[in-house]
Write the structure tokens for this entry.
Amino acid sequence: DLPVVVIVGRPNVGKSTLFNRLVGKKLALVDDRPGVTRDRREGVGHLLGLQFRIVDTAGFEEDDPASLPGRMRAQTEAAVHMADVALFLIDARVGVTPVDAEIARWLRDSDTPIVVVANKAEGKVGAAGVSEAYSLGLGEPFGLSAEHGEGIVDLFDALRPHV
Ligand code: GDP
Ligand code: MG
């Protein structure tokens, strides 16, 4: 059985883009509209010699913590619970939002190791967002560009102990 890596985070942070990069096929639907990935998608991911099952979770309907549907919390927590490691994505260009902070609170008590990833950090434009991600209280974040393939070695280093 392959180890399981799950990707979580609010809509539009680049979860499906990262999933597609790791799986190497356009299996997950990528769209500019928030929350467009309706279903959980799974595939076999590869990264610099690592091999694992990868799960792309659906986003939330609305980017407002007051209206986060409870089932989305339940779905995220269930997906994280069955994983060997969770990649928690934020958007480095936007920084930490209230929804990111809310998700971090759900994840903080999890027994599953959580890796904070500040995506969309290509060309150092997201450096402030990467620093801000420390405030989530889930350990040291690193910058990634799922779209442009930057930060892949850092992603390898973060996953390696868990897969
Ligand atoms: P999801 O809702 O979290 O699954 O996010 P998507 O993967 O659908 O991506 C949302 C938007 O962000 C799309 O327009 C992507 O092209 C864009 N995106 C994803 N990754 C990156 C990245 O590394 N850099 C930049 N600049 N845009 C990205
Ligand atoms: Mg998606």
User: Anything to note?
Assistant: Residues 4-159 form a domain with the Rossmann fold fold (CATH 3.40.50.300). The pocket of magnesium ion (ligand 2) is lined by residues 15-16, 28, 37, 59 (CB under 6 Å). The helical segments are 15-23, 70-81, 98-108, 127-132, 152-159. The chain has a mean pLDDT of 87.
